[in-house]
Amino acid sequence: MMSVDLIFKIAGIGIVVGILHTVLAKIGKEEYAYIATLAGVVIVLTMVIDIISKLFDNIKSVFRLN
């Protein structure tokens, strides 16, 4: 079962990355701002991919596809 904690972690990462991107863009470091945004996306995608792999494992066990 998906936890509300995961949703809050993803939202927190999004807020932090958004603020970091804005601050870096305002001081003229657009390249670093885009790198920070990309890092945030990669972190969230790894979290989501882990959940999706667990979902597929559960589906395989329910339909006895092992």
UniProtKB/TrEMBL annotation:
The chain crosses the membrane at residues 6-25, 32-56. Keywords: Membrane, Transmembrane, Transmembrane helix. The keyword Transmembrane helix applies. It comes from the Bacteria. It holds the Pfam family SpoIIIAC. This is Stage III sporulation protein AC.
